[in-house]
Structures are given as C-alpha cells and as structure tokens.
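Hi R.,

Here's the chain you asked about this morning:
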Amino acid sequence: MYKIKPIQVGALVLALFMTQSVFAAPRVVVSLPAIHSLVANIMHGVGEPVLLYDHESNTADTLDPFQKSELLIADLVIWIGAGLETSLSDMLDHTPPLESRSMTLSRTIPLLLKKNFDGIADSRQISRDLKFWSDPKLAIMAVRQITPKLVRIDPDNTERYLDNEIMLLKRIKSMTHEIASSFSSLEPIPVIVAAQFDQYFNNRFIPNLKNGSTHDGELLKVAGVQTNPCPNLIDQEQLTDHGPDQYFETMRLKTKRIQSCAAKFSRKKVANTISKKDKSG
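And the predicted structure, written out as tokens:
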C-alpha cells in the first residue's frame, strides 16, 4: 500500500490553507454603526465586516487591544475622518501602513457646515458636520464609493458585491420614499423642534419648516435658559442590534422621534395658550 510521507501531509495542509486564504473574505473594519450596516449589506454572502465603535460617543475612547489587533490585520478600514473618530485617527497617524489601507469618507462626500460654525472654514474635519449618513442621498454616494474599493481588494467576489449594491440602493430609495411620505401627510414641523435634530435628516425630509412665534420660544425657556423641547426623545441611545438592518431601523427611529417631538410640542403650545387665556380671564 502506498504510504503518504509526513512531508507530503504537511504540503497538502499548506496547500489547503493557501487555497482557503485565496477565497477568504477580506478583513474589513468599519468605524461606526450606520456605515457598518451599509457595508454589511454590500458584503452579504461574502463575509461580515468588523464594527470598531458600538456607539458614536465612544470614538474618543482609547482603543483597546482587541480593536487595535482588528485594525492591524485589516485589509480595509472604512471610517469618516479625524474630526469624528479621534482615537482611530491617532492610530492611523502612527501606523503609516494602516493608513494606506484606510478609506476616509469625509474627503469625498459633500458636507454641511456645523451648526453655528462662525470660524474660518480651513479644515473640513473642524468646520463640517461629518454625520452625513442621515441624508440617504449621501449614504448612496458612500455606497457607490465603497463597493469599488471592495471589488479592488477582493475581485473574486465582484459579481456578488455589485448585485448586493443594486439591492442595497433599491432598499435605501424605498426607505427614502417611505419617510418622505410620512412627513408629507403631517403639519409643518416647527423650526424650534427641527433644530434639535440632525440637520442632514432635516434638509432631506423637512424642507418646509414652520417658523415659530415668540410664544414657541417661551415654551422652551426655563429660568431664562433655552432647553430642548423633547429631551427624552433626543437623548435616547442608538440601536444596539448592529447588522444589515441597523441603518434602516435607525432612520425610521429618527422619523418617529422628530414626529413625536413635534406632536408633543404642539400639545404644550395648546396647553400654554389655554393657560394664558385662563389667567387673562
């Protein structure tokens, strides 16, 4: 009987390992949940991207050993920019090979100025609002930039990425129509309410805002200090179930919160008007 020598076994194992490596999914790390959700859709059926930060509020925290190791072995790192993910920015600055494998979306996406920014706009990372993904059209722009990057590092799965991109873009457009329709049937959203929420979302879905009166402003003042009309709605945490559906669930949640806030504000306004009439009577 023919016997396989140990050296031949080792060669077979090595060959098998190399074959699996050739077809293995690329290691992709994505910084924030919303973008991670979009990338997860593009990579569906190929592999799962790694989420670096569970929440936007963690982007200044020191990276732990697990996060650093995931970054060091990544084939591609997709992030927004130094103005948002500061701890990741520090690591990229000190790791040139890693920086060459990173994709900085804020460099190529049109961005709005930060609210109340009155300085010299010499740096997009300082002067711009980097949270562009709440505008679905800008999210689509990001998807169309991410897909070619994945194809470049993983050409064997080109067809899968392109098919997934088509499906994802259809899903985003359908969601956009759904949200726009839900606002078209409502009374105009007061400016005072909209100002507390995401300006990218407002610009896309609430173009016709209702100007507030002096009475509206009075409703938001406590001891002379301007307050949020719906702090319990605005300050709620983001969804923690990260994955392909997270972006869409978050966008629908934004819709629900701003509509709930507008309704709550209107009730306060009516109650305030009745109270003033009672006092004057």
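The chain is about 55% helix and 5% strand.

Let me know if you need anything else.
M.
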